[in-house]
Amino acid sequence: MNTKDRPRIKIQPTRFDIAVEVFAWTALALLWVYVTMQYPNLPEIVPTHFGIGGKADAWGSKDSVFFGPAIATVMVIGMSILQRYPYKFNYMEEITLENAERQYTIGVRMIRVLKTCIAILFIIIEYNTGASAMQDDKVDMKWFFLSIFLLIQLPVFYFLTKMLNKK
Questions:
Q1: 124 part of a folded domain
Q2: N or C: which end of the chain has fewer CB within 10 A?
Q3: What is the pLDDT along the chain (167 residues), one digit of tens a residue?
Q4: What is the span of the domain harbouring residue 155?
Q5: Which residue from 20, 53, 18 is spatially nearest to 139, judged by alpha carbons?
Q6: Are 115 and 24 in contact (CB under 8 A)?
Q7: Residue 97 located in a structural domain
Q8: How many other C-beta atoms lie within 10 A of the C-beta of residue 73?
Q9: In this structure, is residue 26 part of a structural domain?
C-alpha cells in the first residue's frame, strides 16, 4: 500500500506520551542552559572531536560548543514535526485500517522517546566536551558508547519488537 493510501488517523497522546514530550523539551532547555552557563569558564580553544580512545583529536573555538545544542534543537523540532505524520513512516508490515492506530501509536511513541534520548545524549556530549576542555583529559569512551547504545539502539530495538508483536 502506498503511503498516500494509508489511513490518516490522529494519534491522541497518553499521559506517558505527554510526560515524554515535556521531558524532551526540558532536556533540550537544560542543554542550552548548561552550555550557556559553562561557556564563560571554557578556555578559548576546546575539543570538537574525540577519537575512539577518548583523546581529543580536533580543536576549535569555544563558540563551537553551541553547535551541539543547535543540532539537537533542529533534531528535536524536526522529530516533533515528523511525529505528526505517522502514515508516512516505514513499517515492517502493511498498514491497514485494522492495525493503523496501533502501529501509528507505537511509531509516534518511538519518535518521542528517541528525541528525548537525543537531547540527553547531547547533554552527555557537551558535558564530556566541557570536562575535557577544562581538565585537558581524555573522555571515557566506553561510557559514551554505552550511552549511545542505551539511549538510541535499545529504544529502537524495543519499539521495533513491539511493532512486530501482534498483541
A1: yes
A2: C
A3: 577 789 999 999 999 999 999 999 999 999 999 999 999 999 998 888 877 777 778 888 999 999 999 999 999 999 999 999 999 999 989 999 999 999 999 999 999 999 999 999 999 889 888 888 877 666 666 777 788 888 889 999 999 999 988 76
A4: 11-164
A5: 53
A6: yes
A7: yes
A8: 16
A9: yes
Q: Which residues of 22-58 are buried (b: 16+ CB within 10 A; e: fewer)?
A: ebbeebbeebbebbeebeeebeeebbbebeeebebee
Q: Is residue 5 part of a domain?
A: no
Contact 71, 164 (CB under 8 A): no
HSE, CB side, 13 Å, CA atoms: give it for residue 28: 20
Positions of E strands within the chain: 45-50, 56-61
Q: Please count the structural domains in the chain.
A: 1
Name the percent of the chain in helix, strand, coil, to the closest 5: 70, 5, 25
Query: What does pTM read for this prediction?
Result: 0.87
